[in-house]
Design a protein that fits this description.
Layout: H1 6-17, E1 23-28, E2 31-35, E3 39-42, E4 51-53, E5 57-59, E6 64-70, H2 79-82, E7 93-98, E8 108-120, E9 123-135
Antiparallel strand pairs: 1-2, 1-7, 3-6, 4-5, 6-9, 7-8, 8-9
């Protein structure tokens, strides 16, 4: 499982280039939820190198952020226990990517930490910091 860098960058570039018909789902707390398009991009940060803040929160310019929309409100009760917080015991949120364009056409699984969630009308928008990726 590659963390942050090249593999995630390759997947982000493939998704942005288009082609294929990517489908996404979010796995959390033993449940799976269909997600709308997932946008992967480098997380903007004001530090030039990986920095640990407060003993637990890591700010890293190489980290990718994933933004996803989940229409199933059943995810809501699972979010507070998974939210990035003041400890190292964050829940591993998995994002399955299938139908992605080459070279990821076999699919991928993103490993991520939940950093925020916003309930909107008919959907929940979640923001994740990607901690790793593996081919499915």
């Amino acid at each position: 499982m590659g963390a942050g860098g090249g593999d995630v960058e390759s997947l982000a570039a493939a998704l942005e280039a288009g082609g294929g018909a990517p489908r996404f789902s979010v796995r959390l707390g033993g449940s799976e939820f269909e997600a709308g398009p997932v946008i992967l991009r480098r997380r903007p940060t004001h530090v030039p190198a990986r920095t640990v803040r407060g003993g637990a929160y890591v700010s890293d310019p190489a980290v990718f952020r994933a933004d996803a929309t989940v229409r199933d409100r059943g995810i809501l009760p699972l979010l507070p226990g998974a939210m990035l917080g003041p400890s190292a015991g964050f829940a591993d949120v998995l994002v399955d990517v299938s139908g992605a364009p080459a070279p990821w056409d076999g699919g991928a699984v993103l490993h991520a930490s939940l950093t925020s969630a916003v309930e909107r009308r008919g959907a929940v928008e979640i923001r994740l910091d990607v901690t790793g990726v593996e081919r499915a």
